[in-house]
Amino acid sequence: MKAPVSWIREYVALPDDLSVDDLTAKLTMLGLKLESITTPADAITGPLVVGKVLTIDKEPQKNGKVISWCTVDVGDANGTGEPQGIICGAHNFEVGDLVVVCLPGAVLPGNFEISARKTYGHISAGMICSERELGLGDDHAGIIVLPADAGAPGTDAFDVLGLDDPVIEFEINPDRAYALSLRGIAREAALGFGVPFTDPADREAPAPNGDGYSVIVDDPVGCPVFAARLVTGFDPTAPTPGWMAKRLEQAGMRSISLAVDITNYVMLELGRPIHGYDADKLAGPLRIRRAEQGESLVTLDGARRTLSPQDLVVTDDSGPIGLGGVMGGDATEMSEKSTRILVEAAHWDATSMFRTGKRHRVTSEAGKRNERGVDPQVVAVAADRVVELLVELGGATADAGVTLVGEAPAQPVTRIDYDLPARITGMAIESEDVVSILQAVGCRVDADADGVDVTPPSWRPDITDPYDLVEEVARVVGYDHVPSVLPPAPSGRGYTQAQKLRRRVGLTLAGAGFTELITYPFVGVADWEKLGFAEDDARRQTLWMANPLNAEEPQLTTTLLPGILRALGRNVGRGNDDVALFEHSLVFLPSGTESAPILGVERRPTEEEWAAITKAVPNQPLHLAVAIAGQRESAGWWGDGRVAGWSDAIGAVRDVARTLGVDLTVRAAAVAPWHPGRCAELRVGNAVIGYAGELHPKVCQAYGLPARSAAAEVDLEVLIEHAVEVVAGPRFSSYPVAKEDVALLVDASVPAADVEAALRDGAGELLEAIRLFDVYTGDQVGEGKKSLAFALRFRAPDRTLKEGEAAAARDAAIAVAAQATGAVQR
Amino acid sequence: MSGPNSEYDPVEVTPLRADQVEAMRDAALAAISDAADLDALKQVRIDHTGDRSPLALAKREIGALPPQARKEAGQRVGQARGAVNKALGERQGVLEAEHEERMLVTETVDVTLPTDRSQRGARHPITTLSERLTDIFVAMGWEVAEGPWVEAEWLNFDALNMGEDHPARTMQDTFWLEPSKAALVLRTHTSPVQARTMLTREPPIYVVCPGRVYRTDEIDATHSPVFHQIEGLVVDKGITMAHLKGSLDHMTEAMFGEGISTRFRPSYFPFTEPSAEMDMVCFVCRGENSEDCRTCRGEGWIELGGCGVVNPRVLISCGIDPEVYTGFAFGFGIDRMLMFRHNVADLRDVFEGDVRFAQPFGVEI
Ligand SMILES: [Zn+2]
Questions:
Q1: Is the pTM of this model over 0.90?
Q2: Bridge-based pairing state of the strands B143-144 and B205-214
Q3: Tens-place pLDDT, residues B245-287
Q4: Are B201 and B318 contained in the same domain?
Q5: Smallest CA–CA separation between A480 and chain B, in Å?
Q6: Residue A788: is it exposed, middle or buried by C-beta count within 10 angstroms (0-12/13-18/19+)?
Q7: Structural domain of B134
Q8: H/E element holding A127?
Q9: For residue B192, is it within any domain?
Q10: Do residues A296 and A238 share a domain?
Q11: Domain count across chain A
């Protein structure tokens, strides 16, 4: 909402020396959020004058453009009194029009200096200005054509355009719809500075009579009040006066025609949207009702709209002629020939306006106000104000008939105790302040010993609850008076174990050289194809968005792999050759068929209702993914580097498991998107928590990754659930260790983990540790075989091992390994 | 050389004369101090303390003396040998130290060589900033509450006093899930966690809820369809807006330093009444000399987010008696705070996953 300061001042006796900054600061603290203050003159240096177009020569150019070579009378402003020759690209003006001329030497917004220059074969000495060039708006479709009474050629245009008048733009919150009018903003200014307010709606409208245009309201809930007034003999050629055009422009609206401008002006002034019909196009009485199934309407914007039985429509004998309160119809629109005008001012049900606007995707200045709630007492007076202006400025005659159907609904009474504002805000507020502030806001207050019964003013439909009144009192006392007090310290239990462990997982991976990232969860079929997921892969079963940002990515991901692999590819593509990434994030698993109930809000849900909600919310487990490409260890003066591979992906998960104190079991698996021979299934107990390994070559290719890139994804929630709670204190022996190395030959297909398990099993209690330190394949062991070298450490808890004891245990271990895995000692 | 003498009469044995012993000792000491390195000293040790050294030979002669002379001669030789051994030990120490010093010099390396064998890792600054914020509240005794990202429509809107026709519902561009009768959304704010907390815990409630939220904004330098909020909720007896201000002032001071307090401006949110927007004093210019401050664009204040007293309607739908309890809530954007606190210019960098973004932040923020 844009409000010129001069217009605000018209209704409030503000001190003359009040700065616009002080005004907006006060209004901000009352709840009118400042968006911007614009004083166009600040960015413009003259000469900027009124000019009268004397001649226009249209000159087509080789590039297809047609330019206008104009001569313009600028009075004596150019020092010579001779007409000024100016080239102009716009065509929305005629000979005789008054325009805004910027003469050489002027500077326009953006430090744009105007000088006489040769162009299109002429000397163009200045510029005919558009709104945008003057910083007044975005409209650059045409130049500004001033009203005929704007001033003589050569008149300084700053005042004509109101360039010195600051315009304040407010962002109006839904609960302050009354401030979508100058009336409302001025009232707040009066409240803020404690100065008198002149209500522009304070006028006596003529009493309704039976002679007015016939109006039948079938739906008084949807349309509680409807006023109609007829004017005749309106001069459609009458120009909009300069003062009105200027204010409309300042408020961000274009001047269109006098009749339309008047309806817009009154809407800005009083907040009440007005509709004007060409009365000659109306057939029979107006009827306000809900639309019938199958009805349609072409609205002012030319769109044909199929109506819903929930839409409120204005009809005549021809059917619907307007989407009540939202947008008028095309067929009965006022035109440049209209002389009989029926003025409609009506109060509409806000919820219905909101739904209709949403249903038809219409946003209009009228709809914006009607759906937030307009003062229901300002209906007849708004119609009367329009009639007054049509008569005064357009030479019309007001018809004696006055139609007014219905009356404004009564405002609900809300009670608060005197101490409530203080109890809620923590500010010291006396009973008398509560009363006087609520009265100043416009409420009717019936006070008794304990509190007040408050009837809010008609323009405040938002005030329905005691706490709404608290806010009214608080904002007038001033939020800056709220003291700063720490609440009593609760005895919190700190972070949960899961929250602490999540942080440790992040630190572990960062410490291991992985960099965390956050990706979007939006995916589509292309991602599953790139990952090589089979058609029946469960991970393709997802939740879907009804309104995705990108039609190609309408699904919510079940796996972190698409995001992390895309990011890995992006890094590689940008020359970050050696990358190790991790992400921990929720994934979205498809829910059952249950819908989440929409419950009431007047009480707490029952246990069953709450269970229904929690059941309908899909399972969203916390996953962890890592992805690696390039070198895991760099080459340097110390020697060669090491290229990352499958073991680094598994190793990362192992690091995490170690941090959590979880025993992880690793087995071979073949799952997309991994290399079928280099993929590990990761288990905790019997639960498969995820997979890790080298990515399938096709997947590397699809994501632009170097060969051998690796990744892992696990269910971090399960890992954390299994985290060790209490570590048992170790017991260890201080007797000497006996070391034995074993080299075993097995089939290449035998997992080393199995051999190790067998050795462990056979070595008995003296075994302290076992470690695989070498794997050899090649000529010396023969085709299809591999040699595994283990280092075994033996120690007794209570004595020094006897000669040969360790060797015996080693041999026992080998024997079990031989039996279990076919291992042969080398 | 004389044999052992058991006779009473002393026999004069030349090498045991005082001047002779002193000469032997001095010769040894001179040789020791002349030894230039450990090898030379080793030879000196053999020459002057070995079996065939003059002092060793002299010692052997002591037995040949008459008993009454043995003691004096023994002392004399013993003292000389002691002095020599001591000097040897000292010299050994000096030469060893010199030797070691020379050895270490030869082992000198260029310690300025790079040591970056492995890559550096980092946590995402959104994660660490979020933790830093929750740490402040946890230190005050609050707890951290969390909730799902796909959320029931009722919890995201209705329970928070945003019914179907609430204008605020259109202010938040919501991702809806299919089918629409499922009544599920990607949560548009962290506020449903408030409702969940009130529905699953008894007051007193002191929680902070950080998390990811979703709105249908196309990504650009300052917008993202995925972003992060942190929300605070307190429900207890006798809670007022003053406690809200106190908690926020504490947070901004802990985060940005002493004197960085907040201010309230009246605003509107369906779930709070009275509602306020909160600003914090610009931590760069501290509200002074603010004309050319790029962080606050000359305002002296930085917009933080929204807050207010929990609307009794919300308490009622979550089963808390507003006659007994009052509460406050606040929420603000973590991504936005990351941008102004760390001078991050483009929100796209936060979500693209380029490692060059997160790495400079390390593991703490
Ligand atoms: Zn600043």
A1: no
A2: parallel
A3: 999 999 999 999 999 999 999 999 999 999 999 999 999 999 8
A4: yes
A5: 7
A6: buried
A7: 125-361
A8: strand A127-128
A9: yes
A10: yes
A11: 6
